[in-house]
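It would be a great kindness if you could assist me with a short task in structural biology. The matter concerns a single protein, recorded as an amino acid sequence and a row of backbone structure tokens. The record follows directly beneath this note:
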Amino acid sequence: KKFRVEKNFSQQELADAIGMHSTHLSRYERNLTAPSIEVVKKIAEVLGMSIDTLIYGHQDERAKGSIKDNELLTMFAKVQSLSNKQQDTVKDFLSAFVLKTDLQKTLAAK
């Protein structure tokens, strides 16, 4: 529903565009039933977005939902504005830190 409203579609307009009755679309929007992948594909095409975005939301929304630490979320948002090379450096640093932490856990368990 959120994306339909953002794109200025009425429920009836979207239902007509994807070839279904608005009652079915209403059920999807209220999470009473789940659409088939074919219907999801049609909705995404009409709304001009990827299936991934339609199902999971915008990347920022997903990050807010999965990263609970606001300071980390802010830092990751700032990293997005860095050059590709700088972003790669941040990724390398994080990968090395996570690898080190995993290795320490593995060694401590032995």
Notes: Residues 53 and 59 are 8 Å apart (CA to CA). The chain has a mean pLDDT of 87. The chain is about 75% helix and 0% strand. The longest helix spans residues 84-109.
